[in-house]
Amino acid sequence: MMHLESMFHCKLASSLVFSNPLLATAPNSEAAPMVLAGVLLSLVFIYLASKLGGELSKLVDLPPVLGELVAGVIVGVSALHLLVFPEAGAVASDSVVMTILQKFAGLSPENIGGVFASSSEVISVLAELGVIILLFEIGLESDLRELQKVGSRAAIVAVVGVVAPFVAGTAGLILIFGMPTIPAVFAGAALTATSIGITSKVLSELGQLKSTEGQIIVGAAVIDDVLGIIVLAVVASLAKTGEVDVTNLIYLIISATAFLLGSIFLGKFFNQSFVAIAEKLQTRGKLVIPALIFALLMAFLANAIHLEAILGAFAAGLVLDETDKRKELDQQIIPIADVLVPIFFVSVGARVDLSVLNPSSVDNRQGLVIAAFLIVVAIIGKVITGWAVFGQEKINRLAIGIGMIPRGEVGLVFAGIGAASGVLDKPLQAAIIIMVILTTFVAPPLLRFAFQGEAIEEPDLAATNNQ
Amino acid sequence: MMHLESMFHCKLASSLVFSNPLLATAPNSEAAPMVLAGVLLSLVFIYLASKLGGELSKLVDLPPVLGELVAGVIVGVSALHLLVFPEAGAVASDSVVMTILQKFAGLSPENIGGVFASSSEVISVLAELGVIILLFEIGLESDLRELQKVGSRAAIVAVVGVVAPFVAGTAGLILIFGMPTIPAVFAGAALTATSIGITSKVLSELGQLKSTEGQIIVGAAVIDDVLGIIVLAVVASLAKTGEVDVTNLIYLIISATAFLLGSIFLGKFFNQSFVAIAEKLQTRGKLVIPALIFALLMAFLANAIHLEAILGAFAAGLVLDETDKRKELDQQIIPIADVLVPIFFVSVGARVDLSVLNPSSVDNRQGLVIAAFLIVVAIIGKVITGWAVFGQEKINRLAIGIGMIPRGEVGLVFAGIGAASGVLDKPLQAAIIIMVILTTFVAPPLLRFAFQGEAIEEPDLAATNNQ
What we know:
2 copies of one chain form a homodimer.
Chain A: H1 2-18, H2 31-59, H3 64-75, H4 96-104, H5 109-141, H6 144-175, H7 181-190, H8 196-205, H9 212-241, H10 246-280, H11 288-304, H12 309-321, H13 326-351, H14 365-383, H15 397-403, H16 408-421, H17 426-450, H18 459-465
Helix pairs in contact in A: 1-5, 2-3, 2-5, 2-13, 3-13, 5-12, 5-13, 6-7, 6-9, 6-14, 7-9, 7-16, 8-9, 8-17, 9-10, 9-15, 9-16, 10-12, 11-12, 13-16, 14-17, 15-17, 16-17
């Protein structure tokens, strides 16, 4: 099957190059519109899934991103096969989109392999552009000045929340399960994420966003983003080279940190020129296009020095966050993110093969045990962060720890990059996704429980009571 | 050279499928991030070119789209080679983006062919999504109710403005230049377009937008869009099958017309459900995602029945234009169009090989003569439309005719689709682009001249004086 696929691809590649020697401008005249048709139909399925999943999630009071992910799992390789990717071993005949094109749009059998490969490639790159825009948006929304206020207490929570689950997860996977170093490190890294979006939404519903606990959680989640993205850049680079070598590791940690701090530092000067340029421009897209040029260039640079593109996009967001144009820019990035980000979330879900965790098969036991292990480490590793806060006696330490639990979209970024880099085998990939879903799922009710009785009557008073 | 390219592609294709047999999820671990890097860098060049060109154009009071196109020519195969496409015969070593990746990002020689092919494919599909969004936006902004007011006079101007240049252009190319039917028909079709955007901007500057002449021009330009897109769908389909056969021609004309009228008719019922659904949704992108699902699905359907994707997107725009949500939707589509549409304009420019029109080579004379012929037909074929208006004596017929001259973005859509379909050889492609640039360039000053003395002092009075 795979061999045949490859032959088709070769045949297409040759026919693309040799077809119509008289007309140098001619692509394969059938394949080109079919690739577009494949992309259009895939996007229709992706958007339908993301909206259905997101809205259903919202109806039962869960974060929409959870619904988009689960909808992705449903349309993906685990169930409906509306969206499958060749890197995961799927061939064109596995894809419902290709079957539809063949039946109703006249796609010929000799072109199907190439069209499937090309349209999947386009969807993959669109998903990557989606996560780049997502991190750019997260950067734009992370307020570095706010952060300095919460200061050291938030920092200690963040550091403990990154180190504890990373060390426990990685060591456990290597020592208990005998996993090779690289996938173990990647899975450990995926445990470090904290989703600021989900926690801060629940906190604001509970009237706890401005309480000491709320401020510490939000501050720690922002620092966690910064640390996490450095960890991810380092780990993903290790995965590319395939070996853990101390010199390389030190180089990566230094270059990722230097890249981030350097761009924030240089950004303070660049800020003014950016605003000055954007104010002089007169044509459509005068704010959003210069911002995108900057974000994509930073993403390219990060990628070119063997870090991750999203690190560059995040740094670009942090830099532009400091300008006067921030609000206006944020407003215009929103529809672009609304269009691109769901492609990423749904794709991450679609790539997960849940069948590898089906408990009825004995072979799958190991994967299930790993998933259970990751969930336990993910929860305990974050809950203990509350007790890392020094000083204050009457602080709600349990609430702080629970507030750090949900991995949400940030955990998905780790899972997505890990899957794309090819270091995670299917059971580990599925186990990480299950961990992300479960931690995101349990955090809101647990957080309500931890704050119980404190904020029900007078949210603002409750916030000061604890100080 | 071409053979080598094809071998590289095959090698990559095989290595993509066979690499890492133990890890089924593994893509080629070097190629995937390099494709992303290639896309990111290409987008940076595209956006830089579009903003520089657009702003410079605006500074000298020309339409920004003209500057974006010329900037595309400059970054493309004619000059800087920052953006080149393999279908036009370019190989990876022609591309500055690939050279940069090779020098600074460690792209290896054995992967360069595949990475070039993949990232060019992604940019091509993004450009196609750009033109789909552009036509969706044009559809959203074409007000069918306004159109009914201007009625028959606008319709006759539009019909003459489509038929005259099409017949004169096609017949001239076949009879005088001995061109084969299909490219001649395509070039003739490209002559039919009228850019409503450019004309209406100049008209509003002259205070003539609400005058009888202005109303007729704008109405005719809208009808011209509808007729033009039907002509394009028919012609592009002919190009795909490669033969002009009367049964096929009749089928295409009927199916394109039926598709457009049918969707407008069915849309009247669908409208209400769309608004009802959009109002129930609660998550981010609640308006723009359902609208995109509809637009992309319509584009897919038009593509699947062998018409053009843009016909579907245009029909979707016309349908949603009739809803109460139109303004809000328009507002949200703007940033998405700002991001995607420049990719289309710059790509169209980048694909044009101007060297084929270099007058110093004798071989190029034919192409230059064809370009001159197209320009003459393009101008005369539209100027005469003014005399097609019946009845009114004191109407400014010259102004109406001149108002229909600029081809602008609509002409580029024709040129772009023609180039992608492979039926236009390089000289004809370049000749069409030159025609689009020149007609767009001369229309604003000519229109000012034609209205001279009429509107300088009191625009509103001048508008009624003529009635």
